[in-house]
Amino acid sequence: xxxxxxxxxxxxxxxxxxxxxxxxxxxxxxxxxxxxxxxxxxxxxxxxxxxxxxxxxxxxxxxxxxxxxxxxxxxxxxxxxxxxxxxxxx
Length: 90
Prior knowledge:
The structure is a single chain. By secondary structure, the chain is an alpha+beta fold. It has 2 helices and 5 strands.
């Protein structure tokens, strides 16, 4: 329940309009998958200032948001390493 409360706080704070929760394996506390908050932090570091949608699929976090210029930005973050796999802006 505590994790759900944290997710709700992040959703409220960031104004995420669409959210797909990770699979149970991704929510595992073993530390093998980075958290949604960590993935958002990685995306913020490369210029995502507003998150519109976040999904966990196939071992990757897919984050869609806006950059400081107002353009749409999609970032794919490796779910295990936190490495940025792809960035698309338009």
